[in-house]
Amino acid sequence: MTHTEIIKKNADGINTKLVEAVIKKAQQLSVDSEIINRRMLLDYLNEELQINLKEGLYIKQILKEAYLKTSYSSSIQKAIINNILDNDGKNSVYNPNRVEQRIEALEIQDPNLDLDDFKLIEQEIETVKEVDGNFEIQTIQQNIDVLKPKKEVSITGRLKVEASKKHAFEIKKEYNKIIQVHEKVKDINLNLVDDFDKTRNKLKLIREDLLNLLIDLFGDQIKSSEPELFDVSQINWESFEDSYAKLDTYFSSINDNVEIFKEAHQQHMSAVSMSGKKEFNNFLNKTSSLANAGRLDKSKLKGAAASAAIGFLVEGGMAVIKSRSDANKTIAQIELDIEKMKDGMRGDVELILNDILKLGRFYTELKDKLIPQLKLFTQKAVNKLIVDISPLYEQIISNHEIKELRDSNKLLMTEFRTIELELIDKKEQVDFNDLRHQQLTEVVDFQKVEYNFLLSLKPVKPNLFYKIISPKKSVNLYNETLIDWYTYCKPFIDNFENTQKEIVREVELKAENLVDMNLLIKRKENILEELNNNSRNIRTIFGEKGNKTILKDLLTHIKDFTVSSKGVLELNISKELI
């Protein structure tokens, strides 16, 4: 099975329909101001077109086609970029302002290489230059310094407590802006590094394609006779973004370290599940007992609900404060919490400003050294290919049999590289499956007690005794109670059961992804075997019919290219900046 048969078997024939469906969805996302991830887009496409597509990198190409087709609507194009994100929620699936990963094998006889990637990189350099993280953080700090709690006159002290509490959350909100500024500065710098790497990777692949040509013509012995050409130990770079250290900020654990936020977080979590609200459960217990007794009517239901509402207000928030003395103690505790938060914030600001300085240093190294060197060499490489190497290659493929084999190798190598990227993506999909499975399982475990409780509240039909003494009233009460149960309880139960189904689905998707990974790995092995067979046939044919006088010149020019390119490819951001 080829890569297309494994990943895209249901997609190729309906490409136009997929593009149109994406445009329709993007228009809807723009109107609704909604953001979805790649998985959600795929679910939409499958439902909209009644198909069964697998998730894969080809979705990016569909989005690209949709973007290019909607030049008539800036809102749709913006939605394609900004409202459809990768599953990790960090980056756009398709962004025309970012450098694309290049995988196509080189057309040596017609090396049509443009330098548009460097135009995108120049734009990103300007974006980084325009964002002054130091200034933005200083402005936020000044805003925090002028924040004061609102003065309140309160007999019980409750309003003063609420004012202090609100003040703490206002400071936290500004504190969060500092964290966001750092993330913004880090992201635009790491985007620049990533696009530099992708641009440099294009040069690396050209080098690889030229070396594969030498292997086709000379055989594997060229590796031992010209070892310096095939030494790639220094140019297999890792993802800079993956290796960049994540700051251990105080803000990341503020809900655990500061009591007021810990309490608020716990209240929020309780509100999500409802199972932690004692008075709400009391309300449900009352309605349950009334319903089971066959005596539930609207007045009693309203009475139970009103009682529960009062109880909830008493149990929740700051309404538990009963005296000015208690209020003063609470305000003092909140003030201590605020000081604790500000201490943590000062430490985080120092960490963040130091990190922004480090980002600034490797931005300077990229802008002033690495990018200019790569651009200069790429321009020379294009000239070398066109003037010296392509004419010699044209003579080699003048033999029709050799040309067919070389064209086959070009397609196979492109597929091989596609599979390598697809395997990385599949690994990320498996990680996403595991994360979703964990999150959904936690939700189910958290809500299980409440689910069972609400399920037990479903009213049962009146027994024979009530049917005999009050046939009409008992049936009406049952129907009214059933309507209330479907209104207030059934949505929670449906959501819980759908979550259980989603857990099963994640297990199935992970299994499917693992099967696909095994198939892709097997296909890679088959491709290597086909490449070797083609290479042997090329050597045989060229040995019998080829003009061997061109081999020496070809080797000389490719050697010049690969040796000189190695210096540029080995250049990396200084270790001390990582």
UniProtKB/TrEMBL annotation:
Residues 514-541 form a coiled coil. Keywords: Coiled coil. This is Uncharacterized protein. It comes from Lacinutrix gracilariae.
